[in-house]
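Is this the right way to post structure tokens for a design question? Let me know if I should format differently. Anyway, here goes:
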């Protein structure tokens, strides 16, 4: 940045303006992915010109950034989109803090926290310090060089006004264009322009600080807790063993009581007088929470417990392995409860999230056990990061809304009830699959009747929200949905939407059914 300071400030100001151009009064769509990739490219170019080159391991983050940035323009499903946006920003921040050192694979949780604070500090401070430094250098090299620019601008303004007025009187078309240009600066819009200019400058300032951090403070020369633990191990092995052992006995008792349900399932529930809702809905959430807090317990004890000699180390690993095994069995129980609940009531967002989350939580538990056995507890941060990335990656590739749609239609084909209103509440990610199923010759007439009603309900919702037609708001999911709907729009004319009742209304189907677009409120 010191070699080309002018180009540096022009670049970050352009990035600030690009943010305004892409997002001001536009529905987010392609804009986030485009802005993320442009910012990434500009950052690489600026740093490369300064002779600051990235480490090879830091570049491993780039494909992940590109993938999740692309997902933001491909998926509309709420959690998938939220994770994609969040992970894009998180991974870009990770690239900045490890740009030159590339030791992010060795980070502990403390390293992530410390580097996050350092990055925030740099965003607010580094650019200001850089400006002061450059101002001092300019004073030493060319005193007063700033004021001739100001004087030149002040002298140019009246000259430009005079000649613009003369040219406007000479040509009516030029006068119209000049009037349209000056209308942009009317007093009615002045507060808006001031606000937009202000946040463009603030964003440029913050981006400058972030890039300066990558250039000057991303060496990763020292990592926290690498030479000695940040928190001394003050807990004795005996105390930790009693805690792990007692919790393990409690879990073992629970598993023994539950074991009959692994092979009896629905029959045993009915014999004991429980319903699906009582057995499943109250069960899987609590068991997942137990698994999560068991993970925290094992991590805490592993961090704080003193272990002298290989015997105590192996004994602690055995107790931890027993705990993880029992928690794994409990996760199997939670998974079975969730499957029973889905079979009885259908698939929803929350149930699908929990499905995928339990798999990655089990993988993280196994990773923690292996790290304990091989005495690599510091790598937990990497294991947790990979599990989180795996969860988000799974949702992105799964296409959650299309998955929910197919599973619920499959249940309906097996004779279960179908909530067409709930299908209509899914995002545009599900519409191509919904139109395919609607046109499938394998669908019964009654089921096709309901799927058509779901499409009509979706159209009613979409027409009221899909108002921004700018290219910045373009989204691949919406585009695919519009293309799919165009293929069946003539077939949907046989349906009648009555919007005079509850919004978005009731649909009268060709077979005479009345379907509420609000659905039954599945959770």
């Amino acid at each position: 940045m010191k070699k080309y300071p002018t180009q540096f400030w022009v670049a970050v100001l352009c990035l600030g303006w690009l943010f305004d151009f892409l997002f001001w009064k536009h529905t987010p769509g392609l804009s986030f992915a485009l802005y993320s990739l442009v910012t990434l490219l500009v950052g690489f170019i600026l740093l490369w010109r300064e002779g600051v080159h990235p480490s090879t391991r830091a570049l491993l983050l780039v494909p992940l950034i590109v993938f999740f940035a692309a997902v933001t323009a491909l998926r509309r499903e709420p959690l998938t989109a939220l994770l994609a946006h969040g992970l894009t920003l998180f991974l870009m921040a990770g690239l900045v803090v490890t740009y030159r050192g590339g030791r992010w694979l060795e980070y502990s949780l403390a390293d992530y926290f410390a580097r996050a604070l350092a990055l925030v500090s740099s965003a607010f401070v580094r650019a200001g310090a850089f400006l002061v430094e450059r101002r001092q250098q300019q004073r030493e090299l060319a005193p007063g060089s700033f004021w001739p620019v100001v004087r030149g601008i002040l002298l140019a303004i009246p000259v430009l006004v005079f000649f613009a007025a003369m040219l406007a009187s000479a040509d009516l078309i030029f006068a119209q264009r000049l009037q349209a240009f000056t209308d942009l600066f009317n007093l009615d819009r002045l507060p808006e322009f001031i606000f937009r200019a202000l946040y463009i400058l603030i964003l440029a300032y913050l981006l400058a600080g972030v890039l300066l951090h990558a250039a000057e403070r991303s060496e990763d020369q020292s990592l926290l807790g690498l030479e000695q633990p940040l928190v001394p191990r003050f807990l004795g092995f005996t105390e930790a063993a009693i805690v792990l052992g007692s919790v393990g006995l409690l879990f073992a008792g629970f598993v023994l009581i539950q074991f009959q349900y692994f092979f009896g399932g629905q029959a045993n529930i009915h014999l004991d007088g429980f319903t699906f809702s009582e057995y499943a809905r109250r069960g899987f959430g609590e068991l997942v929470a137990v698994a999560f807090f068991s993970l925290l317990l094992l991590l805490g004890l592993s961090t704080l417990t003193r272990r002298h000699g290989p015997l105590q180390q192996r004994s602690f690993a055995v107790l931890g392995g027993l705990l993880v095994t029992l928690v794994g069995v409990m996760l199997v129980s939670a998974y079975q409860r969730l499957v029973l609940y889905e079979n009885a009531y259908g698939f929803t967002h929350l149930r699908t999230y929990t499905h995928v989350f339990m798999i990655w939580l089990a993988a993280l538990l196994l990773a923690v056990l292996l790290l304990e056995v091989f005495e690599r507890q510091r790598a937990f941060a990497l294991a947790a990061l990979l599990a989180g990335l795996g969860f988000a990656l799974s949702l992105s590739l799964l296409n959650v809304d299309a998955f929910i749609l197919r599973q619920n239609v499959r249940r309906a084909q097996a004779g279960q009830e179908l909530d067409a209103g709930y299908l209509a509440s899914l995002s545009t990610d599900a519409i191509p699959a919904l139109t395919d199923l609607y046109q499938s010759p394998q669908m019964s007439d009654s089921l096709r009747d309901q799927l058509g009603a779901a499409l009509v309900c979706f159209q009613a919702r979409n027409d009221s929200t899909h108002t921004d037609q700018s290219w910045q708001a373009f989204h691949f999911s919406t585009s695919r949905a519009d293309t799919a709907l165009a293929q069946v729009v003539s077939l949907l004319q046989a349906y009648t939407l009555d919007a005079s009742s509850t919004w978005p209304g009731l649909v009268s189907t060709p077979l005479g059914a009345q379907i509420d677009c609000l659905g039954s409120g599945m959770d």
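Format looks fine. Someone answered above. Worth noting: The mean pLDDT is 84. The first helix runs from residue 5 to 23.
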